[in-house]
Amino acid sequence: MKIAAAHNYYVYILTNKNRTVLYTGVTNDLKSRLYWHLNPEIESKIHFTTKYKCFYLVYYEHSQDIEQSIIKEKQIKGYSRMKKEKLINNFNPSWDFLNETIE
């Protein structure tokens, strides 16, 4: 009997310094993805997060199921700005930048 290994997936929301733009993504390595958003490859095309300077983590949720994480990401992307703000406010009421808290 084979035991499935536990996997980690994260749905996350980034914002810019003034908290005016929101970006939603999904990843299996949140710390590395945050680094990538802040340090994109020079030869790569300009990504949304680079263009709008969305480097600051304000929300994330953990799952061990990639399908559920992708569904949740798409669900959040479909939310209105008000509904996204409510989600963030429930998780991180002061909209602290959580980048340094990720292990």
Question: What features would you describe in this structure?
Answer:
The structure is a single chain. Helix content is about 35%, strand content about 20%. It contains 4 helices and 3 strands; from the N terminus they run ββααβαα. The radius of gyration is 14 Å and the shape is globular. It has about 100 residues and is of the alpha+beta class. It has a 3-stranded antiparallel sheet, sandwiched between helices. A hairpin with a 6-residue loop joins strand 1 and strand 2. The model has no long low-confidence stretch (mean pLDDT about 90).
Short recap of the structure:
The protein is α+β, with helices and mostly antiparallel strands. The chain has 4 helices and 3 strands, in the order E-E-H-H-E-H-H.
Write the layout of secondary structure elements.
Blueprint: E1 9-15, E2 22-27, H1 30-38, H2 48-51, E3 56-63, H3 66-78, H4 81-91
Low-pLDDT regions: none
The percentage helix is 25-40%
Q: Strand portion, in percent?
A: 15-25%
Number of helices: 4
Shape: globular
Rg, Å, rounded: 14 Å
Oligomer: single chain
Helix/strand order, N-terminal first: EEHHEHH
Please describe the biggest sheet, giving its number of strands, its sense, and whether it closes into a barrel.
3 strands, antiparallel
